Amino acid sequence: MNIEELAGLPPGALEHFRSEGIEELYPPQAEAVEAGATEGENLVAAVPTASGKTMIAALSMLSAIERGGKALYIVPLRALASEKREEFAAYESFGVDVGVTTGNYESTSDWLATKDIVVATSEKVDSLVRNGASWLSELTCVVSDEVHLIDDRNRGPTLEVTLAKLRRLNPDLQTVALSATVGNADEIADWLDAELVDTDWRPIDLQTGVHYGNALNFDDGSTREVPVEGGEKQEAALVRDIVQEGGSSLVFVNSRRNAEAAARRLGQVTGRELTDGERTDLAELAEEIREDSDTETSADLADCVERGSAFHHAGLSSTQRSLVEDAFRDRLLKAISATPTLAAGVNTPARRVIVRDWRRFDPTAGGMAPLDVLEVHQMMGRAGRPGLDPYGEAVLLAKSHDESEELFDRYVWADPESVRSKLAAEPALRTHVLATIASGFARTREGLLEFLEATLYASQSSEPGRLETVTDSVLEYLERNDFVERERDDGPGADGAFTSAADLAASDERTEDLEATSLGHTVSRLYLDPMSAATIVHGLEDADDRPTALGLYQLVSRTPDMYELYLRSGEDETFGELYYEREAELLGDAPSEFEEERFEDWLAALKTGKLLEDWAEEEDEERITERYKIGPGDLRGKVDTAEWLLGAAESLAAEIDSEWTVAVREARARVEHGVGEELLELVSVRGVGRKRARQLYEVGIEEPADLREADKSVVLGALKGKKTAESVLENVGREDPSMDDVEADSAAAAATDSSGDGGAVEPDATATTDDEENQSSLGDF
Amino acid sequence: MFKAIVSAETLTSALDSVSVLVDECKIHLEEEGLEIRAVDPANVGMVDLSLEAAAFESYEADGGLIGVDLSRLEDIAGMADSGQLIQLELDEETRKLHIQIDGLEYTLALIDPDSIRQEPDIPELDLPARVVLEGKDVNRSVTAADMVSDHIALGVDEGEEFFYVDAEGDTDDVHLELTREDLIDLQVGPAHSLFSLDYLKDMNKAIPGDAEVTLDLGEEFPVKIYFGFAEGLGQVTYMLAPRIQSD
Predict the structure, then answer these.
(1) Chain B, nearest residue to A627 by Cα
(2) Under an 8 A CB cutoff, do B46 and A769 touch?
(3) Which domain of life is it from (chain B) (predicted)?
(4) Fewest beta carbons less than 10 Å away: which of A219, A307, A453, A545?
């Protein structure tokens, strides 16, 4: 279909597409138009990655706007939101305004009301609904990108409920769902009353296969020789092979660390294939990356980039990420090793995609678990770039003949999994039922059930009545914890003590009014799992004395929103002992030792709580990660979650008039900065972290005001570097922060040199000691 | 997962340089190679060792951590002739290390890493002087000093620009000066510190005579000793705390 045949688009849109070099629609796009995409029809498009899904969305949205409407584009990742904004920003040339909203869950973002196209993450849309953003009812077209993520245990239910709510708000809403090729696109189409475009058409041929030994075997039976030289890794050989041919490659691995290590090694391969011009350009790019931030990651990345390779994972800053992506698209970078985040939609095609790791650590499985077929197919779909590559190749790596066969069966020949709703999982349902009531979407039990009937879960559920049973038990839970009030319309039997069987049967049809309590509203607004909120509320109510930090840390670690550390073998004893030592500090009813499972959970929460306490008692980050066998990122994650939960706990404490609001706030601030109580004031100064605050405290500077008055030589002695000291003094607003001609106070320097146990060796102290004690310890330096 | 083949010589050099300080240690089996950090119980001497994957005949690992009894592992490695290859493989299930030397199979029980002393943080020190010399000169200095004393002073004369070694015994003294001509490199800075020979003797044992050894020194500050082994694919850093001089 030629784009000239398209009707109903805003004036100027066709010129824009033509200037982008688009003359002809791809077959799936043409099919979508024939199915009514530009006429406001609901549509599910299940097509492979890079086959023009965005164009289908664009045509639907633009035609909706031309009819006087407003469109919403829901993305699964924040990174995608900015990519889409850039793409749609070009429409401003013909008068279509685009706005993006991702962060801050509590605002209603009224400024978006004036935009024609709004791009947002599903969590953001959910919170907009909860907070009652009025412009949502003006929407006429909603596009849900990567809708197959409904299958995701954590984020899927939010997307599902959000779509259901939007469709209920605006019964005439056009819903366009874009999906990867999945096993049951027809079910999604049924759910959304939509036309289905289901195809595996791709603009470039994709060959998939497995590399084993020296051969690359493809699904069509053909083979290509890619010899592996002695001592070389398979992926290195595959990268070298395709770079020599003029293509680029993308290597998927299962962790950030592996991505970094692989990029370093691939640099040895790509480095040999560069031209002098490329080397100069890469050196410039590396410099830009170094300037962006001075972390170790950025230095490592720059080192790789100089040799034509790069890594890509969620730990990079957004600037670095886009520098890498752009340079890869420009073919300046020859290889990227990436974690699967890159597979989820970001547009970086390569001629050869190598899926190196097909297993990943899965905490729910307690070990390495194979990736889903869908996920691997998504990665493979990144192969081949229209216009630049004659073909695309996607390769898995096998170490043995058996593994090669397994990979063919498991991924190459296999069909992707079906998308199943995860809404019936209790935490998801608890959260969304409360939100649905709190935001006024349902005011009666019947209204609630009617709403839930409109979800994918209901349309997939084969068991009649199951949804109702689960919903009732959730409602009961919410009522018991004072989050909702249920008022039954008194049936005939309710006034007497005598209840007949007939009355019981009739009571099934009762109407029941539902209303969220003020506490329930708070919980919904805070975005908490109601069970977490209940645990926190009970814990706070139970506290007779001011709760300790450990008590509060263990309390939030018990909530389902905190993914707690599990106990390793032997640790039940360690933490059992700790439990008896500090039993009195813990909040809420402790399980007895005989309830084995609950007791173990209790101890696991104690372990997590203890980790947070260690952090707040200024233990070294490295020592903590070592002691608890976790990565630095995990520690950060736990700390962030605890910070968020304690912030929520503070709101809840205020809501229930608890007298411990201040204790909660303090515990939160301590975990946020990782410091003891006495340092809380000092860390509020910009540039002063936990270590510097401690150094200052050691020399008698106990609060920000002291910094303004203290002798500069003491400050310098405590903080060491002159630059650091100057910028700290500047941040605290000292009149003359300059450190020129200031000598570090030696007593202050010595006080902070000690390893904290008072082990500083003072010269006069050792004068009279015997030989043995003359030996200093490394901790003194 | 850990599986590696390595020459007996490389493995024993690596183990020896750690075992002079500790009996047990944790070994990080990183993708890029082995890493060991350890500190002796008195917190006086520290070692930081890395051995790149390229130093092995073959090497595969994915970031595990094991704890080993060094003397037992050394004994086993000692069974091989220096040119022979040793194959190491970790059994994740049983937490045992399978070691093969030309038909000889040995299964070594590992130690729970949690029960081993914490790994040290290597202090960041700004040491003003740097001396680069041959391993055999280190050996000569240490052996000579050991004849007269328990301690050895290492220092740099800033004016005359030489590196010196002093040992004072009850009756006899040893003094050695190495000028720029005798050294590979010298960066002059204020440096004079006294060290226990017990430790230095042990560290010296692990330093190959033909290695290029770097000493970073300060005034009453720890010394950092760096050297490479296995053709530069292995790196050892020692750090030794000084004895505080009382006068």
Answers:
(1) B114
(2) no
(3) Archaea
(4) A545
User: Which long-range contacts does B96-104 make (Cβ < 8 Å, 24+ apart)?
Assistant: B97/B66, B97/B68, B97/B73, B101/B8, B101/B76, B104/B79
pLDDT of residue A277: 92
Instruction: Kindly report the pTM of this predicted structure.
Output: 0.62
User: pLDDT per residue over A407-446, tens digit each?
Assistant: 999 999 998 889 998 888 888 889 999 999 998 888 999 9
Average pLDDT, chain B: 90
Q: Please tell me the distance from the alpha carbon of residue A274 to that of residue A269, in angstroms, as a whole number.
A: 10
Tell me the nearest-neighbour CA distance from B63 into chain A, angstroms.
9
Q: What's residue A757's pLDDT?
A: 38
Q: For B113-118, what is the mean pLDDT?
A: 78
What is the number of structural domains in chain A? 5
Residue A775 maps to a domain: no
Q: Give the per-residue SS3 of A231-260.
A: CCCHHHHHHHHHHHCCCCEEEECCCHHHHH
Q: State how far residue A260 is from chain B, nearest Cα, in angstroms.
A: 11
Give me the pLDDT at residue A250, please: 93
pLDDT recorded at residue A167: 92
User: pLDDT value at position A759?
Assistant: 34
A695 is in an annotated binding site: no
- Closest chain A CA to residue B115: A627
- At A616, which CATH number? 1.10.3380.30
Computed on alpha carbons and rounded to an integer, the radius of gyration of chain B in Å comes to 19
Long-range contacts of A440-448 (CB under 8 A, 24+ apart): A440/A132, A441/A129, A441/A165, A441/A168, A442/A514, A443/A513, A443/A514, A443/A515, A444/A511, A444/A512, A444/A513, A444/A514, A445/A471, A445/A472, A445/A475, A445/A486, A445/A511, A445/A512, A445/A514, A446/A511, A446/A512, A447/A514, A448/A475, A448/A514
User: Which CA distances in Å does A328 have to A247, A323, A337, A377, A628?
Assistant: 11, 9, 11, 21, 38
Q: How many CB atoms lie within 10 A of CB B199?
A: 20
- DSSP state at residue B182: T
* Whether the predicted pLDDT of B132 surpasses 60: yes
Identify from B3, B118, B246, B247 which residue to disrupt to test chain A contact, counting A C-beta atoms within 10 A and taking the largest count.
Answer: B246
For position A490, what pLDDT does the model report? 55
Percent of chain B, pLDDT > 70?
99
For chain B, say whether A268 makes contact (Cβ under 8 Å).
Answer: no
Question: In which residue ranges of chain A is pLDDT below 70?
Answer: 103-109, 294-295, 341-347, 362-367, 489-510, 631-633, 751-773
From A198, A233, A262, the end of a domain falls on A198
Q: Which residue of A has its CA nearest to B126?
A: A781
Q: Cβ of A23: how many Cβ atoms within 10 Å?
A: 10
Best mutation target, A775, A777, A780, to test chain B (most B CBs within 10 A): A775
How would residue B169 be classed by pLDDT, with cut points 50, 70 and 90?
confident
Query: For domain B129-240, which architecture applies?
Result: Box (3.70)
B46, B120, B243: residue with CB nearest A775 = B243
* CATH assignment, B2-115: 3.70.10.10
Nearest-CB residue to A777 (from B42, B118, B121): B42
Complex confidence, ipTM: 0.77
Decide which of A146, A168, A198 is a domain's last residue.
Answer: A198
| B232 three-state secondary structure | coil
Residues A312 and A371 in one domain: yes
Cβ atoms of B84 and B7 within 8 Å: the answer is yes
Closest residue, chain A, to B238 (C-alpha): A778
Instruction: Say whether both A276 and A324 belong to one domain.
Output: yes
pLDDT for position A29? 93
Contact A778 B243 (CB under 8 A): no
Q: Assign residue A166 the CATH number of its domain.
A: 3.40.50.300
